[in-house]
């Protein structure tokens, strides 16, 4: 059976980009694959300026609760918190000695996030993709569902696996990134040329999974479009309308062309209201389930404990194998 691994940072409140670009696909994959999903809290401490310990604790619980609410099924899948297993940090060290400074320096996400920060950038931010490689490779994941902004990180994990296997013997499985068919890149509603992101400067263009219906309606109503009136998919000429069409398609499971044909000529107002309605309907059951789960934090903690135990059953032997391959002496052996 195919094994899937994916992770999300508890670095802010989950939004439509996270839901459509990641979670919807995570949930669907449970039907055909053995899935492992992780709240990657160690990744969330790589930017010291954004790091507030009490917020991190709260967001870690909330993100796990969100994943359960969306439909990650702890009976079929493994759901756990990254820092509950020290193997991730330890494996990162092994990979630090395999990964190259040059390839990490070129990572687009590192370049973007370190820009203008000069010498104050943390080593953790630089090493972020290596920790991500450890996440994936410790579990012998075949497939990694992620948004297309993560493509380079998955390629790096693949390169590290290949290099390790070549140098020390076959230990790691080579993973590949898989992207959802639609909603792969949800753009900001106020500026459809940048992706919807937790770290955006304004919240007006971000639709949060837990936003109430009124707020969702308002955000779509004020979404940036263009001065024309035609509704068609053209990312270059009509980025705003195209983004709304993509969100609409992802929320309803219908084809972009069919939706464009249905709404063309009806005006942007009607179209935006319909997209908002589809999104509200999509998040309604998720919000209900979230409320139920949030009322029982003990149960969420218990489920995460079970997840960590099951994750360890895979990660601990993989790390031991990697250490053996590298010649790191097991305890009790001389
Ligand atoms: P940050 O702003 O801190 O970069 P983010 O909101 O981009 O955060 P991540 O935690 O980096 O979210 O990403 C979690 C997952 O959601 C990843 O698989 C990522 O590719 C996906 N994702 C994030 N934003 C979008 C988006 N706008 N469209 C599609 N997928 C997205
Ligand atoms: N960098 C990823 C989060 C992440 C991840 C992973 C995704 C950390 N470890 C392992 C897939 C597999 C992001 O989405 N920003």
Could you walk me through the main structural features you see in this protein, from its secondary elements to its overall organization?
The protein is mainly alpha-helical. The chain has helices at residues 16-29, 53-70, 87-96, 101-105, 108-114, 123-137, 151-168, 213-221, 239-252, 256-263, 268-294, 297-326, and strands at 3-8, 34-39, 78-81, 143-145, 176-178. It has a three-stranded parallel β-sheet. It is globular. The two termini are 38 Å apart. The protein binds adenosine-5'-triphosphate and L-tryptophanamide. Residues 5-9, 40, 43, 132, 135-136, 144, 146, 150, 153 line the site of L-tryptophanamide.
Short summary:
It is built from twelve helices and five strands.
Summarize the SSE layout with pairings.
Elements: E1 3-8, H1 16-29, E2 34-39, H2 53-70, E3 78-81, H3 87-96, H4 101-105, H5 108-114, H6 123-137, E4 143-145, H7 151-168, E5 176-178, H8 213-221, H9 239-252, H10 256-263, H11 268-294, H12 297-326
Parallel strand pairs: 1-2, 2-3, 4-5
Helix pairs in contact: 2-11, 3-6, 3-12, 6-7, 8-11, 9-11
Bound molecules: adenosine-5'-triphosphate and L-tryptophanamide.
């Amino acid at each position: 059976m195919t094994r899937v691994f994916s992770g999300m940072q508890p670095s802010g409140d989950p939004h439509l980009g996270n839901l459509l670009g990641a979670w919807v696909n995570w949930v669907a994959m449970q039907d055909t694959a053995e899935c492992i999903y992780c709240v990657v809290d160690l990744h969330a401490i790589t930017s010291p300026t954004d790091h507030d310990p009490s917020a991190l604790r709260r967001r870690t619980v909330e993100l796990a609760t969100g994943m359960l609410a969306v439909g990650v099924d702890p009976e079929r899948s493994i759901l756990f918190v990254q820092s509950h297993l020290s193997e991730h940090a330890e494996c990162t060290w092994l990979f630090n000695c395999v990964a190259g400074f040059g390839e990490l320096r070129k990572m687009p996400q590192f370049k973007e996030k370190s820009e203008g920060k000069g010498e104050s950038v943390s080593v953790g931010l630089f090493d972020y993709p290596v920790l991500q490689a450890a996440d994936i490779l410790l579990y012998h994941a075949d497939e990694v569902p992620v948004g297309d902004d993560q493509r380079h990180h998955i390629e790096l994990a693949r390169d590290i696996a290949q290099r390790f296997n070549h140098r020390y013997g076959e230990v790691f499985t080579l993973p590949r990134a898989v992207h959802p068919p639609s909603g792969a890149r949800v753009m900001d509603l106020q500026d459809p040329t940048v992706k919807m992101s937790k770290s955006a400067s304004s919240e007006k263009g971000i639709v949060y999974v837990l936003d109430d219906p009124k707020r969702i309606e308002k955000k779509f109503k004020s979404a940036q479009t263009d001065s024309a009136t035609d509704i068609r998919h053209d990312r270059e000429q009509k980025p705003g309308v195209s983004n709304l069409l993509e969100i609409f398609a992802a929320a309803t499971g219908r084809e972009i062309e069919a939706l464009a044909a249905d709404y063309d000529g009806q005006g942007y107002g009607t179209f935006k209201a319909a997209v908002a309605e589809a999104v509200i309907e999509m998040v309604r059951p998720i919000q209900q389930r979230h409320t139920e789960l949030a009322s029982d934090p003990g149960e969420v903690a218990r489920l995460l404990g079970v997840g960590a135990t099951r994750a360890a059953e895979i990660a601990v032997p993989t790390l031991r194998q990697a250490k053996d391959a590298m010649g790191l002496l097991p305890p009790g052996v001389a």
